[in-house]
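Support reply, case 0932

Customer input (verbatim):
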Amino acid sequence: MTGTATGSGYDILVIGAGHNGLVCAAYLARAGRKVLVLEAAASVGGTAITQEFSPGFRVSRCAHLLHLMPEFLGRELALDRHGLEFAATDLPTVALSLEREPIVLGSADQQGLLEPDGAAYPEYRARMAAFGATLQPLFERAPPRLGTDAFADRAGLLRLGWQIRRLGRPRMRELLRLGAMNVYDLLQEHFSDPALQGALAFDAVLGTNFGPRSPGTVLTLLCRLAAQGASGSGGLMLPRGGLGALTAALAGAATAAGAEIRTASHVARILVKDDRAHGVQLRSGEQVTARNVVSSADPKSSLLGLLGPEHLDTGFVRRVHHLRTRGLAAKLHLALRGPPNFTAVPAAQQGGRLLIAPSMEYLERAYNSTKYGEYSAAPAMEIIVPTLHDPALAPRGAHVLSAIVQYVPYQLGGGWESGRQGCIDTLIATLEKHAPGISGLIQGAELLTPLDIEQRFHIRGGHWHHGELAFDQFFMVRPVPGATQYSTPLTGLYLCGAGSHPGGGVMGY
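Our regenerated output:
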Protein backbone atom coordinates (compact mmCIF):
# COMPACT_ATOMS: atom_id res chain seq x y z
CA MET A 1 0.00 0.00 0.00
CA THR A 2 1.34 3.40 -0.91
CA GLY A 3 0.87 5.91 1.87
CA THR A 4 0.91 9.67 2.10
CA ALA A 5 4.30 11.01 3.07
CA THR A 6 4.50 13.44 5.95
CA GLY A 7 7.02 16.22 5.29
CA SER A 8 8.09 16.35 8.90
CA GLY A 9 11.70 17.40 8.91
CA TYR A 10 12.35 15.17 11.92
CA ASP A 11 15.94 14.43 12.72
CA ILE A 12 15.10 11.13 14.41
CA LEU A 13 12.15 8.77 14.62
CA VAL A 14 12.10 6.47 17.66
CA ILE A 15 10.06 3.29 17.28
CA GLY A 16 8.47 2.28 20.58
CA ALA A 17 7.68 4.25 23.75
CA GLY A 18 8.92 1.73 26.27
CA HIS A 19 11.42 2.90 28.87
CA ASN A 20 14.42 2.49 26.55
CA GLY A 21 12.80 4.35 23.68
CA LEU A 22 11.68 7.17 25.98
CA VAL A 23 15.13 7.56 27.55
CA CYS A 24 16.69 7.63 24.09
CA ALA A 25 14.19 10.25 22.91
CA ALA A 26 14.69 12.40 26.00
CA TYR A 27 18.47 12.56 25.63
CA LEU A 28 18.33 13.16 21.88
CA ALA A 29 15.82 15.96 22.37
CA ARG A 30 18.00 17.47 25.11
CA ALA A 31 20.83 17.47 22.58
CA GLY A 32 18.76 19.64 20.26
CA ARG A 33 17.43 17.01 17.85
CA LYS A 34 13.88 17.09 16.52
CA VAL A 35 12.50 13.76 17.74
CA LEU A 36 9.26 11.89 17.15
CA VAL A 37 8.38 8.75 19.13
CA LEU A 38 5.88 6.36 17.56
CA GLU A 39 4.12 3.88 19.85
CA ALA A 40 1.76 1.14 18.65
CA ALA A 41 -0.22 0.94 21.90
CA ALA A 42 -2.75 3.47 23.14
CA SER A 43 -0.38 4.63 25.88
CA VAL A 44 3.34 4.78 26.54
CA GLY A 45 5.21 2.25 28.64
CA GLY A 46 5.80 -0.92 26.64
CA THR A 47 6.29 -3.77 29.11
CA ALA A 48 6.79 -1.25 31.94
CA ILE A 49 3.15 -0.25 32.10
CA THR A 50 0.41 -0.23 34.74
CA GLN A 51 -2.92 -1.63 33.55
CA GLU A 52 -6.19 -2.94 34.91
CA PHE A 53 -6.37 -6.74 34.72
CA SER A 54 -9.58 -7.25 36.74
CA PRO A 55 -12.29 -4.65 37.46
CA GLY A 56 -10.78 -2.13 39.88
CA PHE A 57 -7.41 -3.91 40.11
CA ARG A 58 -4.28 -2.49 38.46
CA VAL A 59 -0.81 -4.00 38.25
CA SER A 60 2.61 -3.48 36.65
CA ARG A 61 2.02 -5.70 33.64
CA CYS A 62 5.49 -7.27 33.25
CA ALA A 63 8.38 -5.83 35.28
CA HIS A 64 7.13 -4.86 38.74
CA LEU A 65 10.17 -3.57 40.66
CA LEU A 66 12.70 -0.85 39.90
CA HIS A 67 16.27 -1.55 40.95
CA LEU A 68 18.48 -1.50 37.86
CA MET A 69 18.02 2.03 36.48
CA PRO A 70 21.11 4.19 37.11
CA GLU A 71 20.70 6.91 39.68
CA PHE A 72 22.16 9.58 37.40
CA LEU A 73 19.39 9.03 34.86
CA GLY A 74 16.63 9.96 37.29
CA ARG A 75 18.64 12.98 38.39
CA GLU A 76 19.51 14.25 34.89
CA LEU A 77 15.96 13.82 33.58
CA ALA A 78 14.44 15.21 36.80
CA LEU A 79 11.94 12.36 36.97
CA ASP A 80 10.69 13.50 40.36
CA ARG A 81 9.55 16.76 38.76
CA HIS A 82 7.61 14.71 36.22
CA GLY A 83 5.62 12.86 38.85
CA LEU A 84 7.78 9.88 39.83
CA GLU A 85 7.30 8.96 43.49
CA PHE A 86 8.05 5.78 45.36
CA ALA A 87 5.58 3.91 47.51
CA ALA A 88 8.43 1.85 49.00
CA THR A 89 12.20 1.64 48.74
CA ASP A 90 14.87 -0.76 49.95
CA LEU A 91 12.48 -3.70 50.02
CA PRO A 92 13.92 -6.84 51.63
CA THR A 93 14.21 -10.13 49.79
CA VAL A 94 12.47 -12.91 51.73
CA ALA A 95 13.30 -16.49 50.76
CA LEU A 96 10.32 -18.70 51.59
CA SER A 97 10.66 -22.32 52.63
CA LEU A 98 8.30 -25.04 53.78
CA GLU A 99 11.00 -26.62 55.92
CA ARG A 100 12.47 -23.73 57.92
CA GLU A 101 12.06 -20.07 58.87
CA PRO A 102 12.37 -17.60 56.00
CA ILE A 103 15.71 -16.01 55.15
CA VAL A 104 15.64 -12.23 54.94
CA LEU A 105 18.30 -10.51 52.85
CA GLY A 106 18.33 -6.73 53.11
CA SER A 107 20.78 -3.95 52.33
CA ALA A 108 21.53 -3.37 56.00
CA ASP A 109 21.16 -6.75 57.69
CA GLN A 110 20.27 -10.40 57.21
CA GLN A 111 18.05 -12.74 59.18
CA GLY A 112 17.67 -16.48 59.30
CA LEU A 113 21.12 -17.40 57.99
CA LEU A 114 22.54 -20.61 59.41
CA GLU A 115 26.20 -20.95 60.33
CA PRO A 116 28.71 -21.14 58.79
CA ASP A 117 26.82 -19.40 55.97
CA GLY A 118 26.00 -16.42 58.18
CA ALA A 119 29.70 -15.65 58.58
CA ALA A 120 30.51 -16.36 54.90
CA TYR A 121 27.70 -14.29 53.37
CA PRO A 122 29.07 -10.75 54.03
CA GLU A 123 32.41 -11.64 52.45
CA TYR A 124 30.70 -13.24 49.44
CA ARG A 125 28.42 -10.24 49.01
CA ALA A 126 31.31 -7.76 49.19
CA ARG A 127 33.39 -9.73 46.68
CA MET A 128 30.56 -10.08 44.16
CA ALA A 129 29.67 -6.40 44.55
CA ALA A 130 33.29 -5.50 43.74
CA PHE A 131 33.19 -7.64 40.62
CA GLY A 132 29.89 -6.04 39.62
CA ALA A 133 31.39 -2.58 40.15
CA THR A 134 34.19 -3.54 37.75
CA LEU A 135 31.64 -4.25 35.02
CA GLN A 136 29.41 -1.27 35.79
CA PRO A 137 31.39 1.38 33.84
CA LEU A 138 31.06 -0.82 30.76
CA PHE A 139 27.30 -0.21 30.86
CA GLU A 140 27.72 3.53 30.43
CA ARG A 141 29.54 3.54 27.10
CA ALA A 142 29.22 1.88 23.73
CA PRO A 143 31.22 -1.34 23.66
CA PRO A 144 34.28 -1.46 21.40
CA ARG A 145 34.06 -3.35 18.13
CA LEU A 146 36.23 -6.35 17.46
CA GLY A 147 38.52 -6.68 14.45
CA THR A 148 38.99 -2.98 13.68
CA ASP A 149 41.99 -0.68 13.76
CA ALA A 150 39.96 2.32 14.91
CA PHE A 151 41.51 4.20 17.81
CA ALA A 152 38.19 4.39 19.70
CA ASP A 153 37.79 0.62 19.58
CA ARG A 154 41.36 -0.04 20.69
CA ALA A 155 40.98 2.50 23.49
CA GLY A 156 37.77 0.79 24.57
CA LEU A 157 39.49 -2.58 24.79
CA LEU A 158 42.31 -1.02 26.81
CA ARG A 159 39.78 0.52 29.23
CA LEU A 160 38.16 -2.88 29.64
CA GLY A 161 41.50 -4.46 30.41
CA TRP A 162 42.35 -1.72 32.90
CA GLN A 163 39.02 -2.11 34.69
CA ILE A 164 39.82 -5.76 35.29
CA ARG A 165 43.53 -5.23 36.04
CA ARG A 166 42.87 -2.64 38.73
CA LEU A 167 41.21 -5.33 40.85
CA GLY A 168 44.67 -6.61 41.65
CA ARG A 169 46.06 -9.97 40.62
CA PRO A 170 44.24 -12.20 43.10
CA ARG A 171 40.79 -10.74 42.40
CA MET A 172 41.48 -10.43 38.67
CA ARG A 173 42.26 -14.13 38.51
CA GLU A 174 39.17 -14.91 40.55
CA LEU A 175 36.94 -12.85 38.25
CA LEU A 176 38.35 -14.54 35.16
CA ARG A 177 37.85 -17.94 36.83
CA LEU A 178 34.27 -17.50 37.86
CA GLY A 179 33.10 -15.36 34.90
CA ALA A 180 32.29 -18.42 32.78
CA MET A 181 31.08 -20.59 35.65
CA ASN A 182 27.57 -21.68 36.38
CA VAL A 183 26.00 -20.27 39.50
CA TYR A 184 25.40 -23.74 40.93
CA ASP A 185 29.12 -24.41 41.26
CA LEU A 186 29.82 -20.91 42.56
CA LEU A 187 27.29 -21.14 45.38
CA GLN A 188 28.30 -24.68 46.26
CA GLU A 189 31.79 -23.30 46.87
CA HIS A 190 30.57 -20.69 49.35
CA PHE A 191 27.46 -21.99 51.12
CA SER A 192 25.88 -25.18 52.43
CA ASP A 193 22.28 -24.08 53.15
CA PRO A 194 20.03 -25.02 50.19
CA ALA A 195 17.59 -22.19 51.01
CA LEU A 196 20.30 -19.52 50.78
CA GLN A 197 21.73 -21.09 47.65
CA GLY A 198 18.30 -21.10 46.00
CA ALA A 199 17.60 -17.47 46.85
CA LEU A 200 20.95 -16.28 45.48
CA ALA A 201 20.75 -18.49 42.38
CA PHE A 202 17.31 -17.10 41.52
CA ASP A 203 18.86 -13.73 40.68
CA ALA A 204 21.17 -15.43 38.17
CA VAL A 205 18.35 -17.13 36.23
CA LEU A 206 15.47 -14.63 36.56
CA GLY A 207 14.11 -13.82 33.10
CA THR A 208 16.55 -16.16 31.36
CA ASN A 209 16.50 -19.43 29.48
CA PHE A 210 18.95 -20.91 31.98
CA GLY A 211 18.92 -23.20 34.99
CA PRO A 212 21.45 -22.88 37.82
CA ARG A 213 23.74 -25.46 36.18
CA SER A 214 23.74 -23.66 32.82
CA PRO A 215 27.17 -22.26 31.81
CA GLY A 216 27.41 -18.48 32.05
CA THR A 217 24.86 -17.93 34.80
CA VAL A 218 27.51 -16.17 36.89
CA LEU A 219 27.74 -13.65 34.04
CA THR A 220 24.03 -12.86 34.28
CA LEU A 221 24.37 -12.49 38.05
CA LEU A 222 27.32 -10.09 37.67
CA CYS A 223 25.36 -8.01 35.15
CA ARG A 224 22.51 -7.70 37.64
CA LEU A 225 24.93 -6.70 40.41
CA ALA A 226 26.62 -4.16 38.14
CA ALA A 227 23.31 -2.48 37.33
CA GLN A 228 22.20 -2.55 40.97
CA GLY A 229 25.44 -0.85 42.00
CA ALA A 230 24.69 2.09 39.73
CA SER A 231 21.08 2.42 40.87
CA GLY A 232 21.99 4.14 44.15
CA SER A 233 20.93 3.52 47.71
CA GLY A 234 17.24 2.92 47.05
CA GLY A 235 17.60 -0.82 46.57
CA LEU A 236 14.46 -2.58 45.41
CA MET A 237 11.93 0.18 44.77
CA LEU A 238 8.20 0.25 44.10
CA PRO A 239 7.02 3.30 42.11
CA ARG A 240 3.75 4.73 43.34
CA GLY A 241 1.24 3.79 40.69
CA GLY A 242 3.34 0.90 39.41
CA LEU A 243 6.01 0.82 36.70
CA GLY A 244 3.66 2.82 34.49
CA ALA A 245 4.41 5.83 36.70
CA LEU A 246 8.08 5.53 35.74
CA THR A 247 7.42 5.48 32.01
CA ALA A 248 4.91 8.32 32.37
CA ALA A 249 7.66 10.36 34.04
CA LEU A 250 10.10 9.43 31.27
CA ALA A 251 7.53 10.53 28.69
CA GLY A 252 7.15 13.81 30.59
CA ALA A 253 10.91 14.33 30.55
CA ALA A 254 11.07 13.59 26.82
CA THR A 255 8.27 15.98 25.91
CA ALA A 256 9.68 18.66 28.21
CA ALA A 257 12.93 18.39 26.26
CA GLY A 258 11.04 18.90 23.02
CA ALA A 259 10.31 15.38 21.80
CA GLU A 260 6.93 14.57 20.29
CA ILE A 261 5.15 11.32 21.21
CA ARG A 262 2.40 9.74 19.15
CA THR A 263 0.53 6.74 20.54
CA ALA A 264 -1.74 4.38 18.56
CA SER A 265 0.79 4.72 15.74
CA HIS A 266 1.84 1.21 14.77
CA VAL A 267 4.93 1.15 12.57
CA ALA A 268 4.51 -1.36 9.74
CA ARG A 269 7.90 -1.00 8.08
CA ILE A 270 11.06 1.05 7.91
CA LEU A 271 11.47 3.01 4.67
CA VAL A 272 14.73 2.83 2.73
CA LYS A 273 15.91 5.35 0.17
CA ASP A 274 19.33 5.57 -1.44
CA ASP A 275 20.61 2.73 0.77
CA ARG A 276 19.77 4.38 4.07
CA ALA A 277 16.85 4.58 6.48
CA HIS A 278 14.49 7.30 5.34
CA GLY A 279 11.57 7.05 7.77
CA VAL A 280 8.70 4.68 8.49
CA GLN A 281 5.31 3.69 7.18
CA LEU A 282 2.49 3.17 9.66
CA ARG A 283 -0.20 0.52 9.41
CA SER A 284 -2.57 3.30 8.47
CA GLY A 285 -0.48 3.88 5.34
CA GLU A 286 0.93 7.18 6.53
CA GLN A 287 4.62 7.67 5.86
CA VAL A 288 6.78 9.75 8.19
CA THR A 289 10.24 10.69 7.00
CA ALA A 290 13.34 11.45 9.03
CA ARG A 291 17.10 11.54 8.70
CA ASN A 292 17.54 8.64 11.13
CA VAL A 293 15.44 5.88 12.66
CA VAL A 294 16.06 4.36 16.10
CA SER A 295 14.17 1.19 17.02
CA SER A 296 13.59 0.10 20.61
CA ALA A 297 11.88 -3.06 19.37
CA ASP A 298 13.74 -6.34 19.68
CA PRO A 299 16.45 -7.01 17.06
CA LYS A 300 14.50 -9.67 15.17
CA SER A 301 11.40 -7.49 14.90
CA SER A 302 13.48 -4.47 13.94
CA LEU A 303 15.77 -6.06 11.36
CA LEU A 304 13.83 -9.01 9.96
CA GLY A 305 10.32 -7.62 10.42
CA LEU A 306 10.24 -3.83 10.09
CA LEU A 307 13.28 -3.50 7.81
CA GLY A 308 13.25 -6.82 6.00
CA PRO A 309 16.05 -9.19 5.03
CA GLU A 310 16.12 -7.88 1.47
CA HIS A 311 18.07 -4.85 2.72
CA LEU A 312 20.68 -6.90 4.58
CA ASP A 313 23.57 -9.23 3.81
CA THR A 314 22.69 -12.94 3.84
CA GLY A 315 25.29 -13.78 6.51
CA PHE A 316 24.03 -11.02 8.76
CA VAL A 317 20.42 -12.15 8.32
CA ARG A 318 21.48 -15.65 9.36
CA ARG A 319 23.09 -14.33 12.55
CA VAL A 320 19.97 -12.36 13.48
CA HIS A 321 17.73 -15.32 12.70
CA HIS A 322 19.73 -17.51 15.07
CA LEU A 323 19.52 -15.10 18.01
CA ARG A 324 18.18 -17.02 21.00
CA THR A 325 15.00 -15.21 21.99
CA ARG A 326 12.77 -17.91 23.51
CA GLY A 327 11.31 -16.58 26.74
CA LEU A 328 10.64 -18.79 29.76
CA ALA A 329 9.35 -16.18 32.24
CA ALA A 330 5.63 -15.63 32.75
CA LYS A 331 3.64 -13.19 34.85
CA LEU A 332 0.79 -14.06 37.22
CA HIS A 333 -1.63 -11.45 38.58
CA LEU A 334 -4.19 -12.14 41.29
CA ALA A 335 -7.01 -9.87 42.46
CA LEU A 336 -7.52 -10.63 46.18
CA ARG A 337 -10.38 -9.74 48.51
CA GLY A 338 -7.95 -9.27 51.38
CA PRO A 339 -4.24 -9.42 52.19
CA PRO A 340 -2.45 -12.76 51.86
CA ASN A 341 -0.52 -14.05 54.85
CA PHE A 342 2.74 -15.80 54.06
CA THR A 343 3.63 -18.30 56.77
CA ALA A 344 6.26 -17.20 59.31
CA VAL A 345 6.93 -13.92 57.49
CA PRO A 346 6.72 -10.94 59.90
CA ALA A 347 4.09 -8.34 59.06
CA ALA A 348 6.73 -5.74 58.22
CA GLN A 349 8.20 -8.05 55.57
CA GLN A 350 4.99 -9.31 53.94
CA GLY A 351 5.35 -6.40 51.52
CA GLY A 352 8.87 -7.36 50.52
CA ARG A 353 10.17 -9.30 47.56
CA LEU A 354 9.16 -12.89 48.31
CA LEU A 355 10.94 -15.78 46.59
CA ILE A 356 9.84 -19.36 46.11
CA ALA A 357 13.19 -20.92 45.24
CA PRO A 358 14.00 -23.16 48.21
CA SER A 359 17.06 -24.77 46.61
CA MET A 360 19.10 -24.86 43.44
CA GLU A 361 17.83 -28.37 42.77
CA TYR A 362 14.27 -26.99 42.94
CA LEU A 363 15.19 -24.36 40.32
CA GLU A 364 16.89 -26.91 38.09
CA ARG A 365 13.88 -29.24 38.17
CA ALA A 366 11.55 -26.35 37.34
CA TYR A 367 13.80 -25.47 34.40
CA ASN A 368 13.94 -29.06 33.15
CA SER A 369 10.18 -29.20 32.62
CA THR A 370 10.28 -26.57 29.89
CA LYS A 371 12.63 -28.70 27.78
CA TYR A 372 9.65 -30.96 27.13
CA GLY A 373 7.06 -28.22 26.56
CA GLU A 374 5.68 -28.45 30.08
CA TYR A 375 5.25 -26.04 32.97
CA SER A 376 6.72 -27.16 36.26
CA ALA A 377 4.56 -28.79 38.91
CA ALA A 378 6.74 -26.87 41.42
CA PRO A 379 7.47 -23.48 39.84
CA ALA A 380 9.81 -20.79 41.13
CA MET A 381 8.38 -17.31 41.73
CA GLU A 382 9.28 -13.75 42.59
CA ILE A 383 6.23 -12.33 44.39
CA ILE A 384 5.21 -8.88 45.53
CA VAL A 385 1.96 -7.55 47.00
CA PRO A 386 2.25 -3.91 45.88
CA THR A 387 -1.01 -2.83 47.50
CA LEU A 388 0.55 -3.25 50.95
CA HIS A 389 2.49 -0.08 50.04
CA ASP A 390 0.27 1.41 47.34
CA PRO A 391 -3.38 0.68 48.19
CA ALA A 392 -4.73 2.82 45.33
CA LEU A 393 -3.98 -0.06 42.93
CA ALA A 394 -7.04 -1.99 44.23
CA PRO A 395 -10.47 -1.28 45.74
CA ARG A 396 -10.56 -0.45 49.46
CA GLY A 397 -9.46 -3.42 51.54
CA ALA A 398 -8.55 -5.51 48.48
CA HIS A 399 -5.08 -6.38 47.24
CA VAL A 400 -3.05 -7.27 44.16
CA LEU A 401 -0.48 -10.05 43.99
CA SER A 402 2.08 -9.88 41.21
CA ALA A 403 4.45 -12.80 40.52
CA ILE A 404 7.15 -13.48 37.94
CA VAL A 405 7.15 -17.22 37.28
CA GLN A 406 10.17 -19.31 36.29
CA TYR A 407 9.79 -21.39 34.21
CA VAL A 408 6.89 -21.38 31.75
CA PRO A 409 7.41 -22.62 28.17
CA TYR A 410 6.76 -20.48 25.13
CA GLN A 411 5.02 -23.41 23.45
CA LEU A 412 3.04 -25.72 25.71
CA GLY A 413 2.45 -29.29 24.67
CA GLY A 414 -1.23 -29.39 23.74
CA GLY A 415 -1.37 -25.60 23.38
CA TRP A 416 -2.02 -22.75 25.79
CA GLU A 417 -5.71 -22.50 24.92
CA SER A 418 -6.39 -25.79 26.67
CA GLY A 419 -3.51 -25.69 29.16
CA ARG A 420 -3.75 -22.17 30.59
CA GLN A 421 -6.15 -22.88 33.45
CA GLY A 422 -4.16 -25.91 34.55
CA CYS A 423 -1.04 -23.75 34.79
CA ILE A 424 -2.90 -21.10 36.79
CA ASP A 425 -4.23 -23.78 39.14
CA THR A 426 -0.69 -25.12 39.67
CA LEU A 427 0.63 -21.64 40.47
CA ILE A 428 -2.18 -20.97 42.93
CA ALA A 429 -1.61 -24.35 44.58
CA THR A 430 2.07 -23.46 44.99
CA LEU A 431 1.14 -20.13 46.57
CA GLU A 432 -1.37 -21.86 48.86
CA LYS A 433 1.44 -23.91 50.40
CA HIS A 434 3.25 -20.73 51.45
CA ALA A 435 0.21 -18.51 52.10
CA PRO A 436 -2.60 -20.80 53.38
CA GLY A 437 -6.04 -19.49 52.52
CA ILE A 438 -4.96 -17.37 49.56
CA SER A 439 -7.07 -19.40 47.11
CA GLY A 440 -10.20 -18.34 49.00
CA LEU A 441 -9.30 -14.68 48.51
CA ILE A 442 -9.01 -14.79 44.73
CA GLN A 443 -11.65 -13.00 42.68
CA GLY A 444 -9.67 -12.60 39.48
CA ALA A 445 -6.53 -14.08 37.90
CA GLU A 446 -4.45 -13.38 34.82
CA LEU A 447 -1.48 -15.32 33.41
CA LEU A 448 0.77 -13.81 30.76
CA THR A 449 2.79 -16.59 29.17
CA PRO A 450 5.84 -15.87 26.96
CA LEU A 451 3.52 -16.33 23.96
CA ASP A 452 1.13 -13.72 25.41
CA ILE A 453 4.06 -11.35 25.98
CA GLU A 454 5.13 -11.82 22.37
CA GLN A 455 1.65 -11.06 21.06
CA ARG A 456 0.75 -8.18 23.38
CA PHE A 457 4.09 -6.39 23.45
CA HIS A 458 5.47 -7.38 20.02
CA ILE A 459 8.58 -9.11 21.40
CA ARG A 460 9.76 -12.05 19.29
CA GLY A 461 9.83 -15.15 21.46
CA GLY A 462 8.43 -13.28 24.47
CA HIS A 463 11.90 -12.91 26.02
CA TRP A 464 12.00 -10.09 28.58
CA HIS A 465 15.58 -9.25 27.59
CA HIS A 466 14.84 -9.30 23.83
CA GLY A 467 17.48 -12.03 23.60
CA GLU A 468 19.44 -14.24 25.92
CA LEU A 469 22.25 -12.66 27.96
CA ALA A 470 25.07 -15.08 27.18
CA PHE A 471 28.71 -14.81 26.17
CA ASP A 472 27.90 -14.97 22.46
CA GLN A 473 25.12 -12.36 22.82
CA PHE A 474 26.76 -9.98 25.28
CA PHE A 475 28.76 -6.73 25.34
CA MET A 476 30.86 -6.46 22.14
CA VAL A 477 28.70 -8.97 20.24
CA ARG A 478 25.24 -7.92 21.44
CA PRO A 479 22.94 -8.50 19.70
CA VAL A 480 25.13 -9.88 16.86
CA PRO A 481 28.39 -8.90 15.14
CA GLY A 482 27.56 -6.22 12.62
CA ALA A 483 24.92 -4.59 14.84
CA THR A 484 27.01 -3.57 17.85
CA GLN A 485 27.43 -0.02 19.15
CA TYR A 486 23.68 0.41 18.48
CA SER A 487 24.25 0.80 14.73
CA THR A 488 23.09 -1.59 12.00
CA PRO A 489 24.42 -2.40 8.53
CA LEU A 490 21.87 0.03 7.09
CA THR A 491 23.02 3.64 7.34
CA GLY A 492 20.70 5.74 9.46
CA LEU A 493 19.13 2.83 11.33
CA TYR A 494 19.98 2.25 15.00
CA LEU A 495 18.84 0.00 17.86
CA CYS A 496 18.20 1.13 21.46
CA GLY A 497 16.13 -1.68 22.98
CA ALA A 498 16.93 -4.40 25.51
CA GLY A 499 18.44 -6.47 22.71
CA SER A 500 21.30 -3.99 22.55
CA HIS A 501 24.13 -3.56 25.05
CA PRO A 502 23.94 -3.83 28.05
CA GLY A 503 20.77 -5.92 27.88
CA GLY A 504 17.44 -6.41 29.57
CA GLY A 505 15.87 -5.08 32.72
CA VAL A 506 14.35 -1.68 33.40
CA MET A 507 17.64 0.20 33.00
CA GLY A 508 17.41 2.88 30.32
CA TYR A 509 21.08 2.78 29.38
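We compared this against your earlier run and they match. Two observations from our side: The mean pLDDT is 92. Residues 383 and 403 are 4 Å apart (CA to CA). Please reopen the case if you see a mismatch on your end.
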